[in-house]
Design brief:
The complex is a heterodimer of chains A (615) and B (80).
Chain A (H helix, E strand, L loop, with lengths): L2 E8 L5 H9 L17 E6 L2 E7 L11 H12 L4 E7 L3 H14 L3 E6 L1 H6 L2 E3 L1 H8 L3 E3 L8 H12 L14 H18 E3 L6 H10 L5 H44 L4 H39 L2 H14 L6 H10 L1 H7 L6 H10 L9 H11 L7 H31 L10 E3 L8 H36 L1 E2 L2 E2 H15 L4 H9 L7 H12 L10 H7 L4 H12 L5 H11 L2 H32 L1
Parallel strand pairs in A: 1-3, 1-4, 4-5, 5-7
Antiparallel strand pairs in A: 2-3, 6-8, 10-11
Helix pairs in contact in A: 3-7, 5-7, 9-10, 9-16, 10-15, 10-17, 10-20, 11-12, 12-13, 13-23, 14-16, 14-24, 15-16, 15-22, 17-20, 18-19, 19-20, 22-24, 23-24
Chain B lengths: L4 E3 L8 E7 L3 H9 L7 E7 L6 E5 L2 E5 L1 H4 L2 E5 L2
The chains are: A alpha/beta (615), B alpha+beta (80).
């Protein structure tokens, strides 16, 4: 059967991904900041017995080669075999959007303009004469509300009609001369004047008022801190209950499984490997790591969907200027909270290659979702107790926020050092859009991202944590001479690890955690358990286990610091290799954070030990 | 009337102006043009970052933040 190829183009922040999801029924996360659709998604739908394949192109402001994303979009539009290109525009931001619309129509004749967010426009009393617009542009125009699927059928019908029209498709390289650019922009202004009526003078008054507060000298930074702390606080409080519940359930299940396996006569060694190796590692990952991940992620997504993150970049930009780095690095750092590998791809929004590399090399100083729970667990064990009292939680939040701020300071420092050494240069010009605020679809975001996260973590646990548990059990139980392989490894690492405030087990866990950061703490626990005696365990008694194995305040601090400052995980390293096309930069992306971690942990450990010896 | 000509970074918050010329070259000029900063485009200074730089402007219906280093290369005429 013949498949009709549809390209979905548009500025960032116009709800392109929502249109994509509405058309194809795929659930792709929609972001409110540039750079979300970096890996172009494709999806299919059928309309009137015809199959349509939709490619979601990166959001761009123009087709002239500025960033990698614009290059990708332009190449796709000119060279990919599209039958129809749907240009999505934001009804509340038509004037700006029309520039790209005109460029695309010039490059590709068989286009359809899809005006999204008509409901928001109505709220802001913006009226769009779609007929006149269609006439002036010379292409069909369809107005929709992708979120609530209003007029979606109309859009599908128009795509169908355009795909089956007999007019030949004209593809043309666009003229990029200054004269032509100016002409296009003036045309956009003219068309806008003729087709769009703004009935309410200050249609964006609310956005401006909100921006006046969140970017003000008085409250800008305070609000940033408070929002970050609030998210941490909800994560800490929210994670405690499910953690205990899941833990109790899984370890109850372990006993049941043990009983059942013994009963049917499974050999003891198989029971040992599968239960005390594989199963228990999985159980630790799911009970300790999953709850904070599943809570933090949707909260951060809400902030992102609301449109707050570009404001963070706006407030923080001066610091990045001083580090000779790109202002959008703040955005890629925010993405790092979710996943460093995704953030590395997100660095494509940075146009200048030098600044993009700086952002890539320093991204790992933001703890991703998989490292976050390690920090939370250590803080609640060693600095605030495992109780749920509000005061303890506030202390935890303050410590956690300080760790994050420390990571940001290190990012800026290292960026500065890179700008003065191997990546010399001045900051390039850039423009940061502060898009209109949008009410996030709260229920949907929370439910979907909790589910997504849970499935993601469970999947990774099975792929990575289970084999790791297997290996650890084997290593802990095979003896060479008089000691197990694990103790040979940890004894070997121990002297060096002690210098930086860790011990051999922790360092080994970080090394074994290379495939996925969320297994580091579970591995530490497993090794201690495998080499020590089994005790009755529950989460509050984790601390006892660690302290029995020699953990002090210094160990806790240094483990947290090393968690923040060490090599990127395997997936991130592969992504860096892919994005930079260079082993040299991948190597540096590995070495820079690791060396930073060694140096910082060494200084902290030695200082703390000195202070503690005087107390 | 000559007093009304200034670079965009000097435009006070809440003031409106019209773009008269760009003094940037090369890629930087291209980027500014792509934002819609061509001769005759109205702009308005909206917000200033807590640290004083960058400043957010209303350009063709969008809110765009520019560093003063870039904004200084856009020559505008104050509409007062």
């Amino acid at each position: 059967m013949l498949i009709t190829n549809i390209g979905l183009a548009g500025n960032p922040n116009v709800g392109k991904s929502t249109v994509f999801n509405a058309l194809t029924g795929l659930k792709q996360h929609t972001g409110n900041w540039p750079g979300k659709t970096v890996v172009h998604a494709t999806g299919k739908y059928t309309y009137k017995d015809q199959t349509f394949s939709v490619t979601d192109l990166p959001g761009t402001y123009s087709l002239t080669t500025n960033s990698q994303e614009e290059e990708i979009a332009r190449e796709f539009i000119l060279e990919h075999d599209f039958d129809v290109i749907v240009i999505v525009v934001d009804a509340t931001c038509m004037e700006r959007n029309l520039n790209l619309v005109l460029q695309i129509i010039e490059a590709f004749s068989n286009s359809v303009v899809c005006i999204n967010l008509l409901d928001e426009a109505k709220k802001k009393k913006i009226e769009i004469d779609q007929e006149a617009l269609s006439e002036l542009l010379g292409v069909p125009v369809v107005g929709i509300v992708a979120r609530s699927k209003i007029n979606l059928d109309k859009l599908k019908e128009q795509i169908y009609l355009s795909a089956n029209s007999n007019e030949p498709i004209v593809r043309k390289k666009i003229n990029l001369s200054e004269e032509e650019t100016t002409k296009t922009i003036n045309r956009a202004k003219n068309i806008y004047r003729k087709c769009v009526k703004v009935k309410k003078q200050n249609y964006d008054a609310l956005d401006r008022r909100l921006d006046n507060i969140v970017t003000s000298k008085k409250f800008g930074f305070t609000i940033m801190m408070l929002l970050l702390s609030l998210i941490f606080w909800i994560t800490l409080i929210g994670a405690n209950y499910p953690s205990d519940l899941i833990f109790n359930f899984l370890f109850w299940l372990q006993d049941v499984l043990f009983g059942a396996m013994t009963k049917i006569g499974v050999p003891a060694i198989i029971i040992d490997i599968s239960l005390y190796g594989v199963y228990q590692t999985l159980a630790w990952v799911v009970s300790v790591m999953l709850p904070p991940m599943a809570i933090f992620f949707p909260l951060f997504t809400l902030l992102e969907d609301f449109g707050y993150l570009p404001r963070v970049a706006f407030n923080m930009d001066k610091f990045f200027q001083k580090a000779c780095a790109h202002g959008k690095q703040a955005l890629t750092m925010c993405m790092g909270f979710g996943c460093n590998a995704c953030a590395i791809i997100g660095c494509r929004i940075i146009e200048s290659p030098r600044e993009k590399l700086i952002a890539i090399l320093t991204n790992n100083f933001v703890p991703c979702n998989g490292r976050f729970p390690t920090l939370i667990a250590i803080i609640s064990m060693f600095f605030a107790g495992m109780t749920l009292s509000p005061l303890n939680n506030i202390i935890s939040v303050i410590i956690l926020t300080s760790v994050i701020i420390f990571g940001i300071i290190i990012t800026l420092l290292v960026s500065r050092i890179l700008s003065n050494t191997i990546l010399k240069g001045l900051p390039s010009s850039f423009a940061l859009e502060l898009p209109p605020y949008r009410r996030p679809q709260i229920g949907q975001v929370i439910i979907r991202s909790i589910l997504d996260r849970t499935i993601f973590v469970l999947g990774r646990a099975i792929i990575v944590a289970a084999p790791a548990g297997f290996v650890i059990w084997i290593f802990a139980n095979i003896e060479i001479g008089n000691s197990s392989i694990i103790s040979i490894c940890t004894d070997f690492l121990d002297p060096f690890a002690k210098l930086i405030g860790l011990d051999g087990v922790i360092l080994l866990a970080f090394i074994l955690g290379f495939p996925a950061n969320e297994i580091v703490l579970p591995i530490v626990i497993m090794i201690y358990l495998a080499t020590g005696t089994m005790i009755e365990l529950d989460i509050p008694q984790l601390k006892t286990l660690l302290v029995d194995n020699g953990w002090t305040i210094t160990t806790a601090v240094c483990t947290m610091l090393f968690c923040l400052l060490h090599f990127p995980c395997g997936t991130t390293c592969l992504t860096i290799k892919k994005e930079t096309q260079s082993w040299k930069w991948t190597g540096l992306a590995f070495l820079i954070p690791t060396m930073t971690g060694f140096i910082v942990c060494f200084i902290v450990a030695q200082t703390l030990n000195l202070i503690l010896s005087y107390l | 009337m000559e007093n009304n000509i200034l670079s965009l970074d000097k435009l006070l918050i809440g003031k409106k102006a019209i773009v008269r010329a760009l003094v940037a070259e090369g890629l930087e000029r291209r980027r500014l043009l792509d934002l819609g900063l061509v001769q005759g485009t109205p702009v308005e200074a909206l917000h200033v970052s807590p640290t004083g730089d960058p400043i957010a402007y209303s350009i063709m219906g969008a809110v765009i933040a520019l560093r003063s280093n870039d904004a200084s290369k856009v020559i505008v005429q104050n509409l007062s």
